[in-house]
Task: structure prediction
Amino acid sequence: MPPKQGAARAKPARKRAPAVSTRSRSRAPARSAASRAAKESQRSLDVEVQAALKALERRATRSTLDGMARYGIFTNKAFGVSVGDVQRIAKPLGRSHDLAGALWETGWYEARLLAAFIDEPERVTPAQMDRWCRDFDNWGICDTVCFHLFDRTPHAWRKVAQWASRREEFAKRGSFALLACLALHDRNTADRPFLASLKLIEAAAGDERNFVKKGVNWALRAVGRRNGALNTAAVAVARRLAASPEAAPRWVGKDALRELTSAAVVRKLAAQRGRGAAGRSPAIA
Result:
């Protein structure tokens, strides 16, 4: 029923302001403080990166840069700093995963070498290993990263298997350089993974690309020098490869065979067996 003429109109309800949570108010300053801390940390990291690049640039020489080309190290961004000088710069820096990642992203060859010396192996992830492996563009960076960093990570064996099937020359070399470094440095792993790796070596020996072929050869020699049992297995692989009608596997096999059956290696393995026997009790021997 319509309201009577002259009747007072009802006042519209007053809209309430939305309630502001005290929790939201308390979080805002915390987020702001975290953001400021992150920015300050990034500024500090940028300063460290620039200082490292300047230190590298100060040690650069034309003769070192020219020498890199003579040794087959080709890259688009290099200062020309010796590995020894890179290591001297790394020493006072200590270990820093964040700085290593930032140095790698600069793209400078020597900055990436420096990253390998200062990164923290326990903080290296499989994804990081894959990213860096994709950036390998010469044997120098590939071998240095594998020798000084990647072989100390808990993901090393997985990457040996994964990278062995990569198409890129230096990524595939990374598989066998990493395997060689594990054979040289890993004192805790038993023989079984190394024996299994001989199948990867034999399968890749037919790759005619220079740096893959040399990486495969390095891995075969390193595994075969590890102990007597692995030497026997590696020599068998080397003999099969040496008898191949194809040039690449034949070279890999013959070159490895010369070292693995040399008097020096035979003496070393005999001495190793002697030390092992001396350390065992008669009941176990």
